Amino acid sequence: MDEHGITPDWQRESRIGIGEAVYCAGKNAEQIGRILALAGERQQSLLLTKLDARRFAELDAAAHRRLDFDPLSRTAVLDYGLPTAVPARIGIVCAGTSDMAVAVEAQRSLTFHGVSASVIGDVGVAGLWRLLDRLDEIAAWRVVIVVAGMEGALFSVVAGQVPGLVIAVPTSVGYGVAAGGTTALHSALASCAPGVVVVNIDNGFGAACAALKLLRVFASA
Amino acid sequence: MDEHGITPDWQRESRIGIGEAVYCAGKNAEQIGRILALAGERQQSLLLTKLDARRFAELDAAAHRRLDFDPLSRTAVLDYGLPTAVPARIGIVCAGTSDMAVAVEAQRSLTFHGVSASVIGDVGVAGLWRLLDRLDEIAAWRVVIVVAGMEGALFSVVAGQVPGLVIAVPTSVGYGVAAGGTTALHSALASCAPGVVVVNIDNGFGAACAALKLLRVFASA
Amino acid sequence: MDEHGITPDWQRESRIGIGEAVYCAGKNAEQIGRILALAGERQQSLLLTKLDARRFAELDAAAHRRLDFDPLSRTAVLDYGLPTAVPARIGIVCAGTSDMAVAVEAQRSLTFHGVSASVIGDVGVAGLWRLLDRLDEIAAWRVVIVVAGMEGALFSVVAGQVPGLVIAVPTSVGYGVAAGGTTALHSALASCAPGVVVVNIDNGFGAACAALKLLRVFASA
Amino acid sequence: MDEHGITPDWQRESRIGIGEAVYCAGKNAEQIGRILALAGERQQSLLLTKLDARRFAELDAAAHRRLDFDPLSRTAVLDYGLPTAVPARIGIVCAGTSDMAVAVEAQRSLTFHGVSASVIGDVGVAGLWRLLDRLDEIAAWRVVIVVAGMEGALFSVVAGQVPGLVIAVPTSVGYGVAAGGTTALHSALASCAPGVVVVNIDNGFGAACAALKLLRVFASA
Amino acid sequence: MDEHGITPDWQRESRIGIGEAVYCAGKNAEQIGRILALAGERQQSLLLTKLDARRFAELDAAAHRRLDFDPLSRTAVLDYGLPTAVPARIGIVCAGTSDMAVAVEAQRSLTFHGVSASVIGDVGVAGLWRLLDRLDEIAAWRVVIVVAGMEGALFSVVAGQVPGLVIAVPTSVGYGVAAGGTTALHSALASCAPGVVVVNIDNGFGAACAALKLLRVFASA
Amino acid sequence: MDEHGITPDWQRESRIGIGEAVYCAGKNAEQIGRILALAGERQQSLLLTKLDARRFAELDAAAHRRLDFDPLSRTAVLDYGLPTAVPARIGIVCAGTSDMAVAVEAQRSLTFHGVSASVIGDVGVAGLWRLLDRLDEIAAWRVVIVVAGMEGALFSVVAGQVPGLVIAVPTSVGYGVAAGGTTALHSALASCAPGVVVVNIDNGFGAACAALKLLRVFASA
Amino acid sequence: MDEHGITPDWQRESRIGIGEAVYCAGKNAEQIGRILALAGERQQSLLLTKLDARRFAELDAAAHRRLDFDPLSRTAVLDYGLPTAVPARIGIVCAGTSDMAVAVEAQRSLTFHGVSASVIGDVGVAGLWRLLDRLDEIAAWRVVIVVAGMEGALFSVVAGQVPGLVIAVPTSVGYGVAAGGTTALHSALASCAPGVVVVNIDNGFGAACAALKLLRVFASA
Amino acid sequence: MDEHGITPDWQRESRIGIGEAVYCAGKNAEQIGRILALAGERQQSLLLTKLDARRFAELDAAAHRRLDFDPLSRTAVLDYGLPTAVPARIGIVCAGTSDMAVAVEAQRSLTFHGVSASVIGDVGVAGLWRLLDRLDEIAAWRVVIVVAGMEGALFSVVAGQVPGLVIAVPTSVGYGVAAGGTTALHSALASCAPGVVVVNIDNGFGAACAALKLLRVFASA
User: Fold this and answer.
1) Does the pTM of the predicted model rise above 0.90?
2) For residues H143 and H132, what is the distance between their CA atoms, to the nearest angstrom?
3) Residue B122 burial by CB count (10 A; 0-12/13-18/19+): exposed, middle or buried?
4) Which chain H residue's Cα is nearest to E134?
5) Measured by CB atoms within 10 angstroms of the end CB, which terminus of chain C is less buried, N or C?
């Protein structure tokens, strides 16, 4: 713990294979700045999530210079030497354009850890042919991160068609009963397709972490 | 109002095209018996819904003799001359065997009013081929009553594929977050497929009534 | 899918009779602009929904020039030749002035697809005479889109009086227990009047789509 | 407090005009028996509410002899001299036969305190003519206790038509979204008709108490 | 209905004793202005509720000139000759300073209809002596409007102590589990004190309307 | 872990001052029997909670012989030498007779650990004099366990009047909005009286444990 | 579809690697019997889940003879030649004895598909030493199925300590706010440990399916 | 009550040992200013809570001069002579940097009443070593205020390891299912560790008050 009461878990990567990341919602600019400074002292790369454009603007010039910030996904990367990203038979499927922000959060989280993954967008079930057209590609993946809001029917349809593990990421896209993402979340959890696993609403980062853990533990055969 | 405070709405059929029906949950055997007697005095056919086997058993011998009771759908028919049921390009699609009770409630409600409708069962999206095999048949219907519990993905998939009006009937089939049917209900309401309309959880009767209203008003061109 | 991962479902109209529409909430100006460009390339008319005034203002000049934007209903129309709207015995009933925005969303969605529909406003049940005065007019419609917030008593009263199919559109108008529209939604679903069907809160577009599907499938007798 | 830790509030009547009543749900037969004994020692009449038939059966012979038990409304009266019930321009309106149990709870609570009130049943809004037929009678009452489950549209319709105070008693009658009575409750609270007041779900006793307080304080002009 | 689809219920006062009032949340300035104009044509006084300062500022100069606006209670009065307010043994009790806005909404609604009522503030149960000090005064009222947020314990304590009818107005004051007012609402509905009646969260206007109906119907003995 | 996968935390008492207890809901008779056997082998006294009469009846004769079972509070004690219970300025206040089961669970949990505590029952705020009569006694306690269901107003009233720490135990007593205890729970959490702390619904055992921890850590001055 | 409307998805195993299983809740004995018959015709092994003892007892003698039924986990196996189960570095961790039923459902689902997995029970965080004692063993697994009810703290603690993928199975064990399992579910979804994935409440079968999919797709390198 | 209807409970400290504090959410600047003036007249120190920076800025110059305002914790102190803060074996443990605002609210509330308490930050269970490193320090405290958002696993882990009373303060930190703090709240209430007590979401002040009550009543042995 430094004098501001901040204790990053720098040992996390060696313990569980995922590096410390900084959840920025609920932290003020001063707190985020201090964490960046601690990382800087160690030359430690860092991933920042849920960093909205307004909070990013409040950070100081040094932070702006060092961070690779993406406003759509609200992620930023502090890069002190990151691995080159290579494919790993992991991919992302995204129901609608409104869900793309969360899909990109997952994609950038994977990239940060050395895994490149493509995103197949706009394949919501209202026009099923769009998904069926891409099914062979998706069926080749070992892990399929499916990002969907509204009623989340895509989770079940994909999981019933392909052998890879479906990690469902419900999004807060929608209104009325879908507002906030609970309908998509429950839809994923109650899926009639066996073996769907689920992360929190809008948690593209968490889905990426699960995929990364899998790569690591199955590589260490 | 008779002396027991019961006032059936015998004028309903002439007004809106759907006859009075008796919702039996929350009524005791004496109250149901009295309504049957009132109908008997008028030689009026009646549909009884949500009549469980235990309550049916408590009714008297006269009721048992006159009623055609189906325990699966918890419906009973008091028949003082009903129209012969004929097809009308209306059909019922049912996600799983557990949803069949509600599908049959819809089917029997249609039959009571002179419309025969077939039920296509066990076409949940976990095995999409089962639905795709039947799609041509379903696409010929003007009204498609879709009955599904759990995550209700079937509503969106059907509605995105066929031109008929999809009336979604969410069911209370499921456990955990799906218990009670709220997940399927919200899934139907938040569907990404345009034009899905929804009735209350387990309300096969209501879906049938909507279909019947359509037949009548569109016939009266 | 274009290079931005956008795949409009241009085949939707031929498949289900409703054209692709653009749900604008959750899309940024760049994404909406790109969809407009794709439509422009095909000379394809488009309906945009849930487009608030601030997002509309962020669109570029070309979009402003081509779009017919209505701030009350948050809809915009991209017109590359639309059918003339004609009456079809479909109408809209609206409980209060606060619900008018959603009623107009339904009306403009119908107009876009070639159906003109009048709106009868301010007939909430607190002053029942206002509704009873218009009942003959409403009873002539085949489909009645009823738009109401707060406690949504209007759904049941209309549905019990007229033969047309009532499509209930609950609105988010209200405060306290009515905030967000759940009370009106549940009121519609639990209606004691048989055959009411329901769409998501504030979903005037969805109600219109259901009506349009009906016109098309019953026309194709 | 007696040696069993029971302290009836015998002073309640003089303080607020309503006598102590015994809420029997959650009390075992021994506890109810002890309260009856305490009342017997004082020759104190008592009203028991939410006393189901099974619990009543567990009470001892002395209790069975002294109590006037009504299984429909789950009320019992211990009578050590009650006032003769007289009319007071208070009445009860009840949406459906399934709501009658709660309406009778209100009626018997009034009778216990010396007020006779009639119940008008089966006037749900699905068949509006039934209510309109009785409107003159209802308009003469100073307090109208309206009992309704499902979507509770009756609360708003009555309150918009008559000058008396509407006390809404939502009931737990219904299924799906109406299960448990929350939809009717919220409908009453969000009523577009001004001045509706509401009590807890199934609380016919509470509505009667409110009416009784009004009679007493307005009599003491 | 005028050409803007607005149909005020001018007959309401003669029917139920409460004049038409304008619920301003969800109406834009143009709609409110039109209603004011319709009232002006008839020289009809009007009460406006839930009119926040920003919406008020958007109204035109004529409206600003004619309206008596109170930003705390978000009410405005259009006065074409109102009755002088006189006391009627009705009063308002308010738990904390944060609840005062809703208490004043009730007070101004009463004044508009010719009834003056005093407000006793800051008598929350955390310091019970403050309430006990004022109990004699409150016990003289026939109707006691109790306004409280957070846990709403004040409803039960007052109702257990005084003979007048307690109309509970739960407020949205509070945070955490109390946010939005549901805790206070449920507390009022579940009160262990018999005869408490309840209106919607923050609905000071509704409580006043109920009191006014009582005055009128009990005066017409 | 024994061969049945059961690993009691026998070290708990030395670590935190509270012995291992057995939560019996969700355990079958075989599992409970095995835990009793493990305790018997060590001559270890045990407290069993949430043990309903039916499950107790399923235990074997040896268990019946050794256990002191109380059906009201659903607790049982396996006694291999327990400390004599002595007073410690801790007491229990209980709103109504229906809440007594939970109050006794707290009392027996204290007794098991060597602390005797009296229960003051039936002091709900509907009749405030009952509480005020006992206030001096309660004000002498250092910890006041307050047990209440329904609206839970008692928590705030007691906490505003006495210096001891109020541990609120909301109960599931009530119906309608109070069903299940959430209203009382939220009432306790949102209390306007500062310093109220809360345990789970019906968790008399937990309240006792908190009190016991306090006695121990403050004794070790 | 056979003549009873039943269409098992026999192709599922070849498509996604998990065989058809029968969810028995909501199916009557006749329906389950018919499915067993269909499987028998094909000599197809089947796993039955959520089959409670009462429903099992209603099945016919042939079913009783062929099924290996486990009442604790409510699973049954129809065995027409199953693979020998072998270890695969997958294991199950279980918080308390009450959670064991769900843990065994996961274990038997794995066994059915040829994977043996051990269960480490009773390692809830209230006694952290029990978990820490077993940490080396758990850290060797590639997939860790963690089963916990109540507050579900175990999910985060395990996931923060070991490299394997944690699949959280929240259970319905608990009372008050934990009743039904929602608290444990939300705890898993909101975990501060990165990469936890979650299945529905009590869905041990689903967790096993996810693990099986992983084994299969990562084996097919 | 002064002429603005404000009645501070100046007697609270003598009655329950905690001075009157001012909850500023929902109060406007004028109301807060008036309370400060009343305190100034009595030379009474005051603690203000939930005072956000915008409201603070609206106060007048006199208030700005006298108040010690902390924007992170949204607290301000009006100091007319406060006791020197001394340690009392009470401490605060905080899961993450985002929870620090609430931890500091607790700390400053203690300081105001003469108790100094240190805060141990950033010890969330995702990196358990951080907590274990500080366990000896925490085990020496008599009261441990634990502040955590998201899934709140820290409450159970700490409570299972140390003898002091754990007062859980759930925070609104988190998103998706954790938004608003309900998940952390329920996690605390459902803790498997015995004796955890809980205050409202974000209520650091309330936790401090409970600790202060304990110090006072246990000192008065």
Assistant:
1) yes
2) 18
3) buried
4) H1
5) C
Average pLDDT over residues H67-82: 96
In single-letter form, the type of residue at position F119 comes to V
**What backbone phi and psi angles, to 5 degrees, belong to C67?**
-90, 135
CB-based contacts of F173, cutoff 8 Å, min separation 6: D25, D26, F96, F98, F99, F149, F150, F181, F184
Question: Which element (helix H / strand E) includes E144?
Answer: strand E143-148
- DSSP secondary structure of B38-102: HHHHHT--EEEES--HHHHHHS-HHHHHHEEEETTTTEEEE-SS-PPPEE-SEEEEESSGGGHHH
Give the DSSP H/E element, type plus range, for residue F153.
helix F153-159
Residues of G in contact with F173 (CB under 8 A): none
Beta strands C90-94 and C119-120, pairing class: parallel
Per-residue pLDDT tens for D123-155? Answer: 999 889 999 999 999 999 999 999 999 999 999
Query: Residue A130 phi/psi, 5° resolution?
Result: -65, -40
Q: Which residue has the tokens 């959750």?
A: C26
Comparing C-alpha atoms, which of C143, C141, C95, C98 is closest to residue C120? Answer: C95
Packing angle of the helix pair D182-189, C182-189 (nearest 10 deg): 130
Please tell me which chains touch F, using 3 or more CB pairs under 8 Å as the contact test: D, E, G, H
pLDDT at E162 over 60: yes
Q: Nearest residue of E to residue H4 by CA position?
A: E121
DSSP structural state of residue D114: T
Token output for C62: 């070309």
CA-to-CA dists, residue H176 to A75, A204, A209, G148, angstroms? 17, 12, 17, 21
Residue pLDDT, tens place only, A41-51: 999 999 999 99
Predicted confidence (pLDDT) at residue G40 exceeds the cutoff of 80: yes
A127 → chain B, closest CA residue: B160
Instruction: Look at the block and give the residue holding tokens 């309906």.
Output: C47
> Chain A closest CA to B142's CA: distance in Å?
18
Count helices and strands in chain F by DSSP H and E runs: 10, 11
Listed in order, strand segments (DSSP E) in B135-201 are: 143-148, 165-170, 197-198
Closest CA to A186 of G176, B174, C186: B174
Q: How far apart (Å, rounded) are the C-alpha atoms in residues A87 and C196?
A: 52
G162, G141 in Cβ contact below 8 A? Answer: yes
Chain centre to alpha carbon of residue C192: 24
Contacts of D97 in chain B (CB under 8 A): 5-6, 27, 31, 35
Please, which chains are in contact with G (at least 3 CB pairs closer than 8 A)? Answer: A, B, F, H
For the ranges A19-23, E3-7, F66-70, the lowest mean pLDDT is seen at E3-7
Longest dimension (CA), chain H: 58
pLDDT of residue A12: 84
d(CA E191, CA E181): 15
Q: Give the SS3 label for residue F150.
A: coil
* Predicted ipTM of the assembly: 0.95
Q: Please report, as a single letter, which amino acid is at residue D215.
A: L
How many Å apart are CA F86 and CA F107, to the nearest integer? 12
**Candidate from F16, F197, F206 with C-beta closest to H160:** F16
CB-based contacts of G63, cutoff 8 Å, min separation 6: G32, G33, G36
Burial A32-52 (b: 16+ CB within 10 A, else e): bbbbbebbeeeebbbbbbbbe
CB contact under 8 A, A190 and B182: no
**Interface contact F176-D201, CB threshold 8 A:** yes
A85: left (phi over 0), alpha (psi -120 to 50) or beta: beta
* Sequence-ordered list of residues with C-beta below 8 angstroms from that of E142, at least 6 positions apart, any chain: D214, D217, D218, E88, E89, E90, E164, E165, E214
Q: Which residues of F touch G126 (CB under 8 A)?
A: 9, 12
Q: Is E179 in Cβ contact with H5 (below 8 Å)?
A: no
